[in-house]
Amino acid sequence: MTGQTIRTPDQAEGRAGDGAANRPDAATSVVITMRQLGVPGLPRNYELFYEAITAGNRELTNALSALGGRPAQKQLDEIARRFLRRKDDSVVDEAHVRVAHKLDEIISLLKKERRSMETYDQILGETSQGLSGRQSISREFLEKIISVTATATKSSIANREHTVLSISDKSEELQEVRLELEEYKRLADTDPLTQLHNRRAFDRTMSAIYDNNRNVAFGALILIDIDRFKSVNDRFGHPVGDRILQIVANIIRGGVKDDVFIARTGGEEFALVLNGMGEEAAFRLGDEIRSAVAEAPFVNVGSGTNYGPITVSLGICMATQAQDPDDLYIKADRALYASKAGGRNRTTRFSSLSEGNFVKNWLLYRKA
Questions:
Q1: Please, what is the average pLDDT of the chain?
Q2: DSSP E strand stretches across 195-354
Q3: How far apart are the first and last CA of the chain?
Q4: CATH assignment of 199-365?
Q5: pLDDT tens, 66-97?
Q6: 276 DSSP assignment
Q7: In angstroms, rounded to a whole number, what is the distance separating the alpha carbons of residues 245 and 242?
Q8: Which of 361, 331, 362, 365 lies closest to 349, judged by CA?
Q9: pTM to 2 decimals?
Q10: How many angstroms separate the CA atoms of 322 and 306, rounded?
Q11: Would you give the DSSP letter of residue 220?
């Protein structure tokens, strides 16, 4: 499959020759292309192929096509680093540089203070040596010694006071930059529409699940997808669709504890990364969220327009049922697909699927 071409929706239409009625939308083209190439259905991979298919980036498209079938995730991540570098990445990098610069300034001040103290110690040492061994000391010579040491002492004190004030100022500036950096980091990890975590934060959280046995033993992933969301956008427009996304996000946020990680991982897909919860508890939590969305009114108070019913489908997989973060996402996605295929507005566990019944227990096979 080496050199397989990645087609845009328009190219796909031209190949089929069926006109706009059968033209696949961008999201469908992404899914079809990824499945044809055997690319894991991870959020970061969706983003990469979505960019290639919709943005008309020929260089990116050629780079992906050159990978052929079933490319390694490391290859995909390398291409993502080359082509999907975001503006907020550079802003965070710039803040890092500013922090490093302030630290260098403080270190420079401390070095100057050290040199000043060494000079002061040298003056006192030479004065002490000059006095030792003298049987008599004239008044004039003593006054010179006092003048030199007094001047050196004043200079040392002045330098020290200047250093303390300068370091204090630099520390305040450093703290401001640190706070600014933390805010940039928060914004870089936040979905601007829903104020939930975004896929960047999701990928990082997922990768940490398998760092230790406890996370695996009590970890779970729940994927949530709004049913028939495209039809909502088509009927009422994207502003209404955005508002529905915000309402669903708030329902999910209100249905879990503050320490539960929630992310918007795609257009209408959300994810919960759970810790300290068994499969039954995870299923109950997911189904409570499903019921809350189904029962929520999606009505425009001003016009009285009812945008509902709005429902969600969910897929659940326990961390013990997967080998790594990618495998965990894929299996939760399979459970989500089963919910969709089963009629939507339902919650499915991966363990309830036929393939889920034969999953090895990760804790029994993982090397210590």
A1: 76
A2: 219-226, 261-264, 269-275, 312-318, 347-349
A3: 38
A4: 3.30.70.270
A5: 888 888 888 888 888 787 755 445 555 566 56
A6: S
A7: 5
A8: 331
A9: 0.56
A10: 41
A11: E
